[in-house]
Amino acid sequence: MKSNVNLWYILGAFFLVVAGTYTVWNLLDHGGVEWVGTVALVFSFFMAMMVAWYLGRVNKSTGGVLPEDSLTADIDDGDPELGEFSPWSWWPLVLAFSAAVFMVGLAVGQFLLPVGVAIFAVAIVGWVYEYYRGYFAR
Question: Within this chain, do residues 55 and 98 fall inside the same structural domain, yes or no?
């Protein structure tokens, strides 16, 4: 975990150096600051520092070594329950299709937006209730 924190601090320092270089380069080349790139790189620096700070706090509160980092850890030392996933389910595919129809509706024609929302409603209800009927009902 400590190596992750250090990597994010190094990435933040990289973004800060690149932001400075980018700003100076634009000042010398164009005679002014190009604000979009400079602000994006400075905010990337802030984001990397925020993630590094958060991971540092998590590292401090957990005692430093996670079960994933220890060579002597068992499988049960980590999170025991990650959820239940259905490898045979077709509903995620229908849900992705509804998102695709909605995006095509945004790009091509507004008439496809309600169709995408309707397919989404059917897909999300089907995915939530797939264990309540049919072969896999409980």
Answer: no
